[in-house]
UniProtKB/TrEMBL annotation:
Cofactor field: Zn(2+)
EC number: 4.1.2.13
Chain's role: Catalyzes the aldol condensation of dihydroxyacetone phosphate (DHAP or glycerone-phosphate) with glyceraldehyde 3-phosphate (G3P) to form fructose 1,6-bisphosphate (FBP) in gluconeogenesis and the reverse reaction in glycolysis.
Pathway(s) annotated for this protein in UniProt: Carbohydrate degradation; glycolysis; D-glyceraldehyde 3-phosphate and glycerone phosphate from D-glucose: step 4/4
Gene Ontology molecular-function annotations: fructose-bisphosphate aldolase activity; zinc ion binding
Similarity field: Belongs to the class II fructose-bisphosphate aldolase family.
Lineage of producing organism: Eukaryota, Fungi, Dikarya, Ascomycota, Pezizomycotina
Protein name: Fructose-bisphosphate aldolase
Length: 465
């Protein structure tokens, strides 16, 4: 359920408000990235966590209608579970129906009311009404004052007239509407800039005057950022911009990559690489790479049936990169996987960086490995900056706080949709003998249950208890 904030704490308890006011106070800006699918959402969160930076995930009404409110709920769940502040914002709500739907989404942090195509007085009245209702749901509101040239994805393109924001009216607008964030028009445009670029069309003096009129209590939002230089971004931040919207900057290179690579890789590998490319395009201004803390690989789709991996274990022991005394392998461990083996990768505590990715999967598949099991949570980018492989086919430990478990060379790994089991080598033959009557008894139990008998009844008859 949406947290309803009291007058004493609103909007200070709102996630978008916290992120942008911290940016305003700190003299920096936070990227707000328009996401169209789960790749974009994951990429933003990964980059934010790696850089220990806040971020904002934005979704257009187009995505809301195409993928449904469940997609927004997914974005909110992922964002709010991040280890750094990440908010979810519904961008450019032009249609009244979009605003109504947004106000009903549980835990949505903020939305943008775009009534900039209306006359100024009607825009002000409408924004005031939405801000009042948003407050009841704990949401904050961004509004556009003036008219920003051009059109966004899935949105109507306004006419080419540019109606600039007047500094004298900006403060009155914010005070009368109660919106928390303002997107001013000062020559910025949605979509590509005409010849001369943003440097030619931006009126930085106007932006500065707007920022001074509003003061630090109202962070400014920058729309129309494709393309904009880093230098111009810095000038905007110096003039009160705390939120920088990024859409085509990230989207175009992502879609180009997918278009080029879709026929070259399996979907699982493609999804991984596409996320990394989008990740690398996130404009945080710092080098990329590193690891994602706490990611566990899993299939997001429902699975059933006899999915299973079985094989002799091939253990791989990783050690901290600082451990210069530990042995070093001859070559890459992935090249020595025995046919039909199950790779068991053990990382040194407390590291939970990644050690396995798409290239490793390709090589393991070529060598006919049965599968791979991780002794700990793992992501999909290289972990060489903090740990390295040391030995293979050695005794390794399962990283578990619940109990102590060791995996020995010669053990068998059996894994299916119910879990993973390690069968010690000295018990392999015996367990086969024990399993056969258990399987037969369970088949009889299943048949009895299908006929309507109770579990207690069939267990007593076929399992002897």
């Amino acid at each position: 359920m949406t947290a309803h904030l009291s007058g004493d704490t609103y909007p200070r308890d709102n996630r978008t408000w916290q992120i942008l006011h911290a940016a305003q106070t700190g003299g920096y800006a936070v990227g707000a990235y328009n996401c169209y699918n789960d790749d974009g959402i994951i990429a933003v969160i990964r980059a934010a966590e790696r850089q220990r930076s806040p971020a904002i995930i934005q979704v257009f009404p187009w995505a809301l209608h195409f993928q449904g409110p469940e997609f927004i709920s997914y974005a909110i769940a992922r964002a709010h579970a991040a280890t750094v502040p990440v908010a979810v914002h519904l961008d450019h709500c032009i249609e009244h129906a979009d605003v109504e739907l947004a106000l009903k989404i549980p835990d949505l942090d903020s939305l943008m009311v775009d009534a900039s195509t209306s006359d100024p007085e009607a825009n002000m009245q409408y924004c005031a009404e939405i801000a009042r209702r948003a407050k009841e749901n704990g949401m904050t509101v961004e509004a556009e004052m003036g008219r920003i040239n051009g059109g966004e994805d899935g949105l109507k393109t306004v006419d080419m007239e540019v109606l600039y924001t007047h500094p004298d009216f900006a403060r009155e607008f914010v005070e009368k509407t109660g919106v928390q964030f303002l997107a001013p028009s000062f020559g910025n445009v949605h979509g590509p800039y005409p010849e001369g670029g943003a440097e030619k069309y931006w009126q930085l003096d106007r932006l500065e005057a707007i920022g001074q009129a509003l003061g630090p209590a109202t962070p400014l939002v920058l729309h129309g950022t494709h393309p904009v230089s880093d230098e111009l971004f810095r000038k905007a931040m110096d003039r009160g911009v705390a939120k920088i919207n990024l859409n085509r900057n990230v989207r175009d290179d992502y879609t180009d990559f997918v278009g080029q690579q879709y026929s070259r890789h399996e979907l699982t590998v493609l999804k991984e690489k596409a996320v990394e490319v989008a990740d690398g395009l996130v404009k945080l201004g710092l080098p990329y790479g590193g690891y994602l803390d706490g990611l566990t690989m899993y299939s997001p789709q429902y699975q059933s049936g006899d999915t299973k991996i079985v094989g002799l274990v091939y253990t791989v022991k990783f050690v901290p990169i600082s451990d210069t005394n530990a042995p070093k392998p001859n070559g890459n461990y992935i090249d020595s996987i025995p046919k039909a083996a199950v790779v068991f990768i053990s990382q040194p505590a407390p590291h939970i960086n990644a050690v396995y990715g798409g290239l490793m999967s390709m090589r393991a598949r070529f060598l006919d490995a049965a599968g791979v099991v991780f002794a700990k949570g793992v992501a999909t980018t290289a972990g060489g900056s903090v740990c390295r492989p040391s030995q293979t086919d050695v005794r390794v430990q399962l990283n578990s706080d619940a109990y102590e478990a060791w995996i020995e060379p010669g053990d068998y790994i059996v894994a299916d949709l119910d879990g993973v089991v390690c069968v010690p080598a000295n018990l392999a033959e015996k367990v086969l003998e024990v399993i056969e009557p258990i399987v037969k008894a369970d088949e009889k139990c299943a048949a009895g249950i299908k006929e309507g008998r109770t579990v207690q009844d069939v267990f007593k008859e076929y399992r002897g208890r």
